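Example 214, ligand fe (ii) ion.
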Amino acid sequence: MRDLFEQEEEGLSIPIVPGAVLLRGFANDIAQQLLGDLERVLASSPWRHMTTPGGFRMSVAMTNCGTLGWVSDRTGYRYDRVDPASGEPWPAMPATFLQLAAQAAAAAGFDRFVPDACLVNRYEAGARLSLHQDRDERDYAQPIVSASLGLPATFLFGGIRRADKSRRLSLAHGDVVVWGGPARLSHHGILPLKEGEHPLTGRCRINLTFRKAG
Ligand code: SIN
Ligand code: FE2
């Protein structure tokens, strides 16, 4: 549930650091359409738990849509045109996804953002993503747009260096974080998800991360 403080912030752009902004509730109006379109993506490329290069099973379940999909396996991280599970190209990025990504990027000051990759993350209770940088993309001039749906989570947002102090931001359904420019290589992560139930996503949180990868 969005707490009273977050309700008051709805529609606000909250600066995090130069180049990074939290857009409270930015995806609220389109959330149901995004989730409906996600069902069609999942019909071709279902959830899977990828393996890290070190051999660990990721707690977050993932899939992708768009021309390029982010993949992790024993050989490393990469973007691939083909879903390794199906041997087919990833499902096309739905128009609603492209629209949300472009509008959120523009609201954060990044015009004409056209992502070619959307990584979709599903967190169940206990699932987490440790502090990392997004650095598998070709052009760091392009921002990252990250939309939260369903259960709330605590987002860690740190600095360019791994040891830099990180801030904790509480992300609720509909919140969108955009980082680029001087913040493009900021470390970030998600603390273990707390149990809960959300009317649109059930017992999980879904995150859409849009990137121009190629
Ligand atoms: C990511 O860093 O890929 C996802 C972050 C999130 O789930 O909010
Ligand atoms: Fe990331």
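Summary: The chain has one domain: 14-211.
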